[in-house]
């Protein structure tokens, strides 16, 4: 029987080259030009046989925790990685979100927050291996499951051997994979495992697609251990596996089932052990007790298995990157991705952290790193929100996109990734008329001239009575995307008004102009200043934009709350933090220290339904009423 210490080999210093460096002939230029083929003697750091992982000739355990670089401010990457190492993990597990890197087709970016190579190198410097999951689809409760909106807007046969889909994936891999090849353990880097596809057995049955994905990695120089990940049913395992890749499992509880399903020679690994769960708007906050989580972890370790805790540190769906599910109705994910993880959204450590540290410690030579100190937190305060402009006045000030079209255009047709699109048309209003939106994705605020008529909800009421008698008026429909579906057969659905607008359910409205709210543009925070006189229709309780200034002595973490607000978007110093919504459960937005500066800090709020009168800085998060999650 192998001792825990013997079964955990950390071998960065045993590799033939210094961290992240490769032989002279293996240059970044040669990789990017596809001129490099891995040396014939290049081999993966980790293999498997006789039911266990092998590294350096000895049994090995992957003790990983999921931490997504795209959900953590880059100035906090090192802090969170060190907390993960202090938890006892020897590996960090991260997806690669394609749409985060290639928001504009043909213009992939790997700088700043998108500097994946820096994150991987930093993990190695901290002493962690990297389990990289770069498959085009990631799920992850992330917008569109990681697929770019411009791709899903034109390709319907997603995650298949469809030629157009594969051509786009290949172009993406040509940009991505050469960057990670030199960072593999075979060349002195920390990457020891790479995932081919993510829970494909829950989605499709195109074996040729899985083979293409495997070969796409190998042909571009990936030599490390390949994996797949699927749920604990024979059907999922059969359709999600591919020859040459280790099948791994995803579950909250299911060690015994996984043991029964795996082939005798396969090492046992849970690549997503759900120690917590995510939240949708309108639900309770999901929690899982430390006792429940560690019971499954201990069972898996006792069975000789490897594990990745999902999530070890969840982070935040900053901006509009949250995904959504659809189970009879749209279920958008909240801004926080805390997931009741061992390392909280702000880096705080809890009982799960301590339980995992104790469980993982025996698998290490020597002492674990000390627990990092808590991060500083801003003192509580409240400041006044000053109304600036109404929603109606705001949208009228936005420039039009393109030319007038007979039918309303979808977000994808307009080239709008997410957020808000404004649809406008002149209509003849008969007496006792209704306006009917055919297939709305996702939520619309309707105006007739200057009068707010009401709100339409996807999968809900899609018809509104129009006020007044017969007349000619301007119809304005402000449509908000609440999150692109990230899982299941409806993934890739478009956003906006999908099939037109009718009067009294019969006559189509033609002649549409479009506007979009540019969430990343300086003009959003360049609206009238807080000292400007608000418009007549702007006041606390009304929809529209408001501003506040928060004075701080030094940057520190904070939690922001908007009491009295109904449904809003929040910018801090021009950075879009995310959403609040009175339906809960989330009550506070995480505002990390790197986004603050000494002195006055600007808060901009756009509330589509009704502004509150204050912004509160709180010293701790409030995620709302809880509900126990056990997993399956």
From TrEMBL:
Alphabetically ordered keywords of this record: Glycosidase, Hydrolase
Keyword Cell division: no
EC number, as in UniProt: 3.2.1.23
Catalysed reactions listed for this entry: Hydrolysis of terminal non-reducing beta-D-galactose residues in beta-D-galactosides
Domain Beta-galactosidase galactose-binding: 548-601
Domain of life: Bacteria
GO-annotated molecular function: beta-galactosidase activity
Domain Glycoside hydrolase 35 catalytic, residue spans: 52-359
Domain Beta-galactosidase 1-like first all-beta: 408-517
Keyword Transmembrane helix included in the entry's annotation: no
SUPFAM superfamilies, A to Z: (Trans)glycosidases, Galactose-binding domain-like
Protein family: Belongs to the glycosyl hydrolase 35 family.
Protein name according to UniProt: Beta-galactosidase
Organism lineage: Bacteria, Bacillati, Actinomycetota, Actinomycetes, Micrococcales
């Amino acid at each position: 029987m192998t001792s825990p210490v013997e079964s955990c080999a950390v071998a960065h210093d045993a590799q033939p080259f210094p961290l992240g460096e490769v032989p002279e002939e293996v240059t970044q230029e040669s990789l990017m030009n596809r001129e490099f083929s891995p040396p014939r003697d290049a081999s993966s750091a980790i293999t498997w046989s006789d039911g266990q992982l092998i590294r350096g000739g000895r049994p090995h355990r992957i003790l990983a925790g999921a931490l997504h670089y795209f959900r953590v401010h880059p100035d906090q990457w090192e802090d969170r990685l060190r907390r993960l190492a202090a938890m006892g993990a020897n590996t960090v597990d991260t997806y690669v979100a394609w749409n985060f890197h290639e928001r504009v087709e043909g213009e992939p970016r790997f700088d700043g927050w998108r500097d994946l190579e820096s994150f991987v190198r930093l993990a190695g410097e901290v002493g962690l291996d990297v389990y990289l999951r770069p498959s085009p689809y990631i799920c992850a409760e992330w917008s569109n499951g990681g697929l770019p909106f411009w791709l899903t807007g034109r390709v319907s046969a997603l995650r298949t051997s469809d030629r157009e889909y594969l051509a786009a994936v290949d172009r993406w891999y040509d940009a991505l994979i050469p960057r990670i090849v030199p960072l593999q353990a075979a060349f002195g880097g920390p990457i020891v495992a790479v995932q081919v596809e993510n829970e494909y057995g829950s989605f499709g049955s195109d074996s040729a697609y899985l083979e293409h994905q495997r070969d796409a990695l190998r042909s571009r120089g990936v030599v490390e251990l390949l994996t797949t990940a699927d749920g604990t049913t024979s059907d999922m395992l059969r359709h999600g596996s591919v020859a040459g890749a280790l099948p791994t499992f995803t579950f909250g509880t299911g060690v015994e089932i996984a043991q029964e399903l795996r082939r005798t020679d396969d090492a046992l690994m849970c690549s997503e052990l759900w120690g917590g769960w995510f939240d949708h708007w309108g639900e309770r906050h999901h929690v899982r007790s430390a006792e429940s989580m560690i019971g499954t972890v201990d069972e898996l370790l006792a069975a000789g298995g490897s594990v990745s805790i999902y999530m070890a540190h969840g982070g935040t769906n900053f901006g509009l990157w949250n995904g959504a599910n659809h189970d009879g109705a749209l279920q958008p994910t909240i801004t926080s991705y805390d997931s009741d993880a061992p390392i909280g959204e702000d880096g705080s450590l809890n009982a799960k952290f301590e339980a995992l540290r104790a469980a993982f410690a025996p698998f290490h030579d020597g002492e674990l790193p000390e627990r990092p100190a808590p991060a500083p937190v801003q003192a509580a305060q409240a400041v006044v929100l000053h109304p600036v402009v109404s929603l109606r006045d705001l949208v009228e000030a936005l420039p039009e996109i393109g030319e007038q079209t007979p039918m309303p255009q979808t977000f994808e047709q307009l080239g709008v990734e997410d957020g808000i699109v404004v649809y406008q048309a002149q209509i003849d209003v008969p007496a006792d008329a209704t306006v009917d939106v055919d297939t709305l994705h996702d939520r619309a605020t309707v105006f007739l001239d200057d009068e707010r008529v009401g709100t339409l909800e996807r999968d809900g009421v899609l018809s509104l009575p129009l006020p007044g008698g017969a007349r000619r008026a301007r119809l304005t429909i402000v449509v908000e995307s609440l999150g692109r579906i990230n899982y299941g057969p409806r993934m890739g659905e478009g956003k906006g008004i999908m099939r037109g607008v009718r009067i009294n359910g019969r006559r189509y409205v033609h002649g549409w102009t479009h506007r979009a709210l540019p969430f990343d543009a300086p003009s959003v925070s360049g609206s009238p200043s807080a000292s400007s006189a608000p418009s007549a229709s702007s006041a606390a309780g009304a929809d529209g934009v408001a501003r506040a200034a928060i004075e701080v002595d030094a940057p520190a973490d904070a939690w922001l709350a908007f009491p009295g607000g109904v449904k809003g978007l929040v910018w801090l110093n021009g950075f879009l933090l995310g959403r609040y919504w009175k339906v809960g459960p989330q009550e506070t937005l995480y505002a990390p220290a790197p986004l603050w500066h000494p002195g006055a800090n600007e808060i901009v709020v756009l509330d589509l339904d009704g502004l509150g009168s204050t912004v509160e800085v709180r010293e701790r998060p409030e995620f709302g009423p809880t509900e126990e999650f056990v997993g399956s």
